[in-house]
Write the structure tokens for this entry.
Amino acid sequence: MRRALVHLTVNGDRYCVAVRSNTLLVELLRDHLRLTGTKVGCGTGDCGACTVFLNGRTVNSCLTLAVEADGGEITTIEGIASPAGELHPVQAAFIEHGATQCGFCTPGMVVSAVQLLRDEHRPSEECIRHAIAGNLCRCTGYTKIVEAIEAAAERSGP
Amino acid sequence: MRLPPFDYHAPHTLEELLTLLAQHGPAARVMGGGTDLLRALKTGKVCCEHLIGVKGVQELGGVEFDEIQGLRVGAHAVLADVERHPAVRARYPALAAALDTLATVQVRHKATVAGNLCNASPCADTATPLMAHGARLELVRPSGQREVRVEEFFRGPGRTLLEADEVVTCIRVPPPRARLRTHFSKFSPRSRVDIAMVNLTVAMVLDGDLVEHVELFLGTVAPTPMRALRTEAVLRGQRLDAERIRAAAAAAQAECRPITDMRATKEYKARLVHAMTQRALESLAVVR
């Protein structure tokens, strides 16, 4: 099987990584770069625990080849807070509203919520639920997650 | 879940893509967004030695519309870009509605309309609205180019008429005819994101309350998305009143050919076809 060199920027840092053709983006992030904030749940694109930004848009990193990210820019949960360590409004709201229980879905959920707030400044509850439909949570029942995203929208809105 | 071994190729031009396909033929698979294909490779449903990603082929990108040519959806245009295109929202609302219910945000950022068709699932949500708009696929192979209607493209569950050395370059949808109204609906447990139990699209032109033109396409209730010709015959040239709508709904229930599977029994799906056809026609009768 072929190997390829993948050049990519992750959370502002540039990397060049040798991967196999069948290496997944999530494997590159977790196993090669040790960025283990991104989780693997189902591995089939249903649960959203592996959600990251690729070139400004959320994707399931378990359904993305590492070679597809060549030349690309990636933001993982580790890059959502500011470089100085100040939490993103979504992260702060998740803490304040208790939107986390076991925490396994949280990185993907936060990334999806950040995507939503980039696209919509004042999303309705329906819009929020639609935006996180690709992120499954087995603990919270979603109510507190939706409340946290509503609060973050109010805080970061114009 | 890890992927089995394969070689990945990322051609930059259509010519390179066709050369690779000619070289590797049946041992190769063409990948658009990969949201179904990578999953099928992981679970062993599909095997291939060579995976050819088309995202780098510039000729196969883009979503464009003009009043003469209509809509052109490049083979690697992703669902989110097609859904958000102003012309799709304004001129092809049934397609926009289908895209809105299809998959998650993350998948819509990666999956392609061409891929949705090439998977040839009887449930493909983009199939019935594209068929109702008379869409065609442009196919290219080293020996030449051809255009086929979406209806002709499907050959059975998971099977299309694509040859081993052939690729989809784009989908062309003619401009909607004057006064055309369309209606897409989908029924599934989550109503969005998940796979349809039944989906359908009706395209209709009314002259007063007379049905001047009608096409009805049903998804998930036959080996391929199907045209409901007998139901159309019940409607064509007739007054779209409550009695006619009931007769058409009964005809659609009678002519669909669903199977019992993990989503529902065939009897339930046939009842859904009845109810959804009735509601679709009622909504088109009201908005004229």
Observations:
- The longest helix of chain B spans residues 266-287.
